[in-house]
Amino acid sequence: MYEIDKEKFGPFVARLRKEKGLTQKQLAQALYVSDKAVSKWERSLSLPDTGLLLPLAQLLGVTVTELLLCEKSENPDPLPRGQVDQMVEIFARAEEKPPRSWREKSRWPFVMPAATLLGALSWFFLPQLFKNEEIFSPLLTMQILCLVFGMYFCFLAPLRLPAVYDAYPMSIFVDGPVRMNLAGVHFNNQNWPRILHAARLSCCLLLVLLPLIAALLHLVFTGLLFGFVLMALFFAGIFAPLYAAARKK
Q1: HSE-CB of 59 using CA atoms within 13 angstroms
Q2: 225 CB contacts (<8 Å, ≥6 apart)?
Q3: Whole-number Cα distances in Å, 167 to 37, 86, 145, 161, 180
Q4: Mean pLDDT of the chain, nearest integer
Q5: 48, 167, 181, 209: which has the fewest Cβ within 10 Å?
Q6: 0.85 exceeded by pTM
Q7: 127, 158 Cβ separation under 8 angstroms
């Protein structure tokens, strides 16, 4: 699998530039770009235009393939032409900023706050129904997790994935600090809308239903067993819908 790694590309360019004894300004002048542009490349804030790949590779003393793979090899094996073309296309589209969920016209900006409110209201009744405080700590932790992930999926998650997810099988979704790994599932723009919908729905439902589920479980289980069963149901409620959505044809 070949992937343009912007975080790896910047330090790779910086190392090659220093090996050549070039300053950022000198490299920028040779490419007819600003030194600020070179600085952004090396800080992994942006990528150069595809038209600069060949002259940049020549100035840094590597092949375009090595530049795209962010690896220097003494005897680089050239990639097939079609594969190089694919990598260049992905490189060109790596800077595309997909629209975020908050720009989508949907019901979720209203459903999520409503679910949060209902989940919060349950805390006015739980202390009256259950005097044992062992129910509160795990429940609060899980509701906070539902709130955090629900807010992300309803307001911040991308509405479509970068091109690399369609070009190569990837089971890990990465969006800044957010990481999601579904073993056996390949994220792509065909199943991503379903995954996004399932994540939103499960987070909102769990926010509302977790207090009721915890209350019922507490009638049967106590101590560590209560926490274990509640946690198992929580993770099943989160991940089962995601797998079902991802595998749906």
Answers
A1: 21
A2: none
A3: 28, 8, 32, 11, 19
A4: 82
A5: 181
A6: no
A7: no
SS3 assignment, position 177: coil
The rounded distance, in Å, linking the Cα atoms of 121 and 114 is: 11
- Assess whether pLDDT exceeds 50 at residue 169: yes
pLDDT(192) > 90: yes
Predicted confidence band of residue 194 (pLDDT cuts 50, 70, 90)? very high
CB 213 within 8 A of CB 230: yes
Tokens of 235: 């993770």
Two tokens, residue 117: 């409110």
Q: Which amino acid is at 24?
A: Q
Pair 98, 156: CB distance under 8 Å: no
DSSP 173: E
Residue 180: CB atoms within 10 Å: 17
Query: Could you tell me which residues come within 8 angstroms of residue 5 by beta carbon, excluding any fewer than 6 positions away?
Result: 70
Backbone phi and psi for residue 173, each to the nearest 5 degrees, phi listed first: -100, 130
